[in-house]
């Protein structure tokens, strides 16, 4: 791969899309591809539970640009709504509504019918690779100049979009490079999902039998308790009897209280997937003084105690000493025979919000203190926490790998489509 330098390097020409290699064309999308849209969504139970796939906007994944699910409609739906079948590999993306701002792109994984809110794009020239075209469209932002409200991308304007068209062999090489990175990311996601499933299974097993092997589990004497079956030597205690349970303070209001050096954690700072805190606000000493905020030590467990976010069952440990918002409950072990790390996993295994009414639900500190938890001997706690921490570390490492691949993909996508990086001389296996 050659990195290009300068405004107009040798062998390049100036085009409507900027400097591009002399052998590349710039064409209108409508001149090289069939651009159309799907049909009306069938209405009524009689049109479903069939065998024909029907793809909606919501079926396009926001993160990985794939379609993993779809509705199944009947032959009657196809006939009554005069739906058109689009072949596997057809590129689809939203053309109306707020979802156009998400800039979703996907390729149909099978022959399918699609909803009218989706634009469909299919190469109509032999010298235009459908896979390359997909990556071209992923690199373009259609909605950036659209007004708020109910924005629409018209088929006529989509057809006028200019795209780069390298020679077919270079298209295939560009697509191969990007596909290789995409496949590596997908494999990483498989590992992450497998590790998360393993963790769920391990938590259920460990909190029932303890850190013993499957053959040994048959010999573990269990007892029925308020928290389920647990080993006989374990206790069941109230959370408030073994831990300090409290909450944070009011969030400072006003610019004067920010741009300081003291971390302040809000509910939104807890990641929904990996239960970590990777960001926070920075507040001033004046904010701490005026709002009488309390500093919580690194390792304090925090989770939402009010509002709809309690249903997400977020749990996290403070990565540093920090101040926290009043919407967060704080939990810190107050006994030497209770490991803070074990307590974290215990709380992750519990669902607090399942019996809460809709509206604006609240977990009161008093009721949180009454929650019953299992309490094994300290060495057992430490072993359980060690096993689960090892799985968490694996998940975190794979998440970092996934993020690096995502960043690499974005960089390559832009640089390959603008010819800042060339792969025309790259040997790609068949």
Protein described:
The chain has 3 domains: 1-8 and 167-215 and 378-430, Orthogonal Bundle (Helix Hairpins); 25-165, DNA methylase specificity domains (Adenine-n6-DNA-methyltransferase TaqI, Chain A, domain 2), CATH 3.90.220; 235-375, DNA methylase specificity domains (Adenine-n6-DNA-methyltransferase TaqI, Chain A, domain 2, Alpha-Beta Complex). 32% of the residues lie in helices and 22% in strands. It is built from 11 helices and 24 strands. The radius of gyration is 28 Å and the shape is elongated. The model has no long low-confidence stretch (mean pLDDT 92).
Which helices and strands appear, and what pairs or packs with what?
Blueprint: E1 2-3, E2 12-15, E3 18-21, E4 25-28, H1 29-32, E5 33-37, E6 48-55, E7 71-73, H2 75-80, E8 91-94, E9 106-107, E10 113-114, E11 118-123, H3 130-139, H4 155-159, E12 162-165, H5 168-209, H6 214-217, E13 222-225, E14 228-231, E15 235-238, H7 239-242, E16 243-247, E17 258-265, E18 281-283, H8 285-290, E19 301-304, E20 316-317, E21 323-324, E22 328-333, H9 340-349, H10 365-369, E23 372-375, H11 378-417, E24 421-422
Parallel strand pairs: 6-10, 17-21
Antiparallel strand pairs: 1-24, 2-3, 4-12, 5-11, 6-7, 8-9, 8-11, 13-14, 15-23, 16-22, 17-18, 19-20, 19-22
């Amino acid at each position: 791969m050659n990195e290009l330098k300068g405004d107009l390097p040798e062998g390049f020409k100036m085009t409507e899309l900027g400097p591009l290699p002399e052998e590349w064309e710039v064409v209108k999308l409508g001149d090289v591809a069939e651009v159309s849209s799907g049909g009306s969504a069938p209405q009524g139970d009689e049109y479903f539970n069939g065998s024909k796939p029907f793809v909606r906007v919501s079926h396009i994944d926001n993160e990985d640009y794939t379609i993993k699910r779809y509705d199944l409609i009947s032959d009657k739906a196809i006939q009554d709504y005069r739906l058109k079948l689009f072949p596997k590999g057809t590129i689809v993306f939203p053309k109306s509504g707020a979802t156009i701002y998400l800039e979703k792109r996907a390729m149909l994984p099978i022959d399918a019918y699609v909803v009218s809110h989706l634009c469909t794009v299919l190469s109509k020239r032999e010298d235009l690779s459908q896979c390359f075209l997909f990556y071209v469209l992923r690199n373009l932002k259609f909605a950036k100049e659209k007004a708020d409200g109910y924005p629409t991308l018209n088929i006529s304007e989509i057809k006028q979009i200019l795209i780069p068209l390298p020679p077919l062999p270079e298209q295939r090489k560009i697509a191969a490079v990007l596909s290789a990175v995409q496949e590596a990311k997908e494999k990483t996601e498989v590992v992450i999902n497998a590790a998360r499933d393993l963790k769920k299974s391990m938590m259920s097993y460990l909190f029932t039998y303890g850190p013993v092997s499957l053959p040994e589990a048959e010999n573990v004497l269990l007892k029925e308790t308020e928290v389920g079956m647990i080993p006989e030597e374990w206790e069941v205690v109230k959370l408030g009897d073994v831990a300090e349970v409290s909450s944070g303070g009011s969030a400072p209001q006003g610019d004067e209280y920010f741009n300081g050096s003291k971390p302040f954690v809000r509910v939104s700072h807890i990641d929904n997937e990996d239960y970590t805190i990777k960001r926070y606000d920075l507040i001033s000493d004046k904010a701490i003084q005026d709002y009488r905020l309390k500093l919580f030590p690194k390792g304090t467990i925090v989770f939402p105690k009010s509002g709809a976010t309690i249903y997400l069952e977020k749990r996290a440990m403070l990565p540093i000493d920090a101040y926290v918002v009043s919407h967060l409950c704080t939990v810190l072990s107050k006994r030497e025979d209770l490991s803070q790390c074990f307590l974290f996993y215990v709380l992750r295994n519990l669902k607090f919000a399942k019996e809460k009414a809709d509206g604006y639900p609240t977990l009161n500190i008093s009721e949180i203190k009454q929650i019953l938890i299992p309490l094994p001997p300290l060495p057992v706690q430490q072993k359980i926490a060690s096993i689960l921490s090892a799985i968490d570390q694996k998940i975190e490492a794979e998440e970092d790998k996934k993020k690096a691949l995502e960043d690499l993909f974005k960089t390559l996508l832009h640089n390959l489509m603008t010819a800042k990086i060339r792969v025309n001389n790259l040997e790609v296996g068949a």
